[in-house]
Specification:
262 residues; 4-stranded antiparallel beta sheet; globular; DUF1444 family protein
């Protein structure tokens, strides 16, 4: 472990210090920071391991402290994970993480060679990973967790609008939802076919470079859009927090497959 006051550069110090100050206002302190810049915080019986990397990328892009506030809110609300299944089940959703992430005991499932699905609690519009220990405490298995996450997505989709833009007589779809961090998650609802087949048919294609950005388009438009979306996908992936993949994904009856990447 290294002392958490160690400085790396001015931009890092700015985000780190704001984060540290906001934690202390909530009565929490940073225990230590390791050589890989992971931050350790103790809450009750839990030792939290935190990375500021995604928050930093979003803050440097937007100069918006709400990205830091959201992470602090999630940490403060972490104690909710100690509640029973009935109290937290309606907060369960899915998110996606690149496969080079150290999943440790986090419940995860591989989707493609680039990224995996993880299960999270949506707390104050931020996410807390669900671990194998959580499932043990709740006396639930993976199938029950998946079923609950899909049910919660089904309820959420009542508020989802899939808007289509005409681009040279080709339909490009975008998901409009208040909970923007769940945009990409909506595509993995088990009944997504019923939401898109009347507009662009099924199977369909999508790009999800980050969790709050996605485009969808018809199978017949694959060649057209695959040649035109690369710069947008790469810009979002490289400059936004919470990156997922630069792959082009095909959604079909058999699941989700990557057919190429930018």
């Amino acid at each position: 472990m290294t002392n958490f006051s160690k400085k790396n550069n001015q931009k890092e110090d700015l985000v780190f210090n704001k984060f540290k100050n906001k934690l202390e206002i909530k009565g929490l302190i940073i225990e230590s920071v390791d050589e890989d810049r992971f931050i350790y915080i103790n809450i009750g019986e839990s030792d939290l391991k935190i990375s500021l990397e995604n928050v930093r990328r979003n803050y440097e892009r937007d100069s918006d402290e709400s990205h830091i506030d959201e992470l602090v809110d999630v940490i403060v609300a972490h104690s909710l994970k100690n509640e029973d299944w009935e109290s937290i089940k309606d907060k369960i959703y899915i998110q996606f993480i690149p496969n080079d992430f150290d999943f440790e005991n986090i419940v995860n499932e591989k989707v493609t060679n680039e990224f995996s699905k993880v299960f999270v609690l949506n707390i104050n519009n931020g996410f807390s990973f669900i671990t194998k220990e959580d499932l043990f405490d709740w006396k639930k298995d993976l199938s029950e967790l998946e079923k609950q996450a899909d049910y919660n997505l089904e309820r959420l989709l009542d508020k989802v609008k899939i808007e289509f833009e005409d681009v040279d007589n080709h339909k490009l779809g975008m998901i409009n939802i208040e909970e923007v961090s769940l945009k990409s998650s909506c595509l993995f609802y088990s009944k997504i076919k019923s939401l898109v087949q009347d507009n662009i048919g099924f199977p369909f294609y999508a790009v999800i470079p980050v969790r709050d950005f996605c485009y969808i388009f018809a199978e017949e438009d694959l060649e057209y859009f695959s040649q035109r979306l690369g710069s947008v996908v790469l810009d979002e992936y490289n400059n936004s927090g919470y990156p997922i993949t630069t792959e082009i994904l095909r959604f079909s009856e058999t699941g989700v497959d990557a057919i190429g990447k930018y």
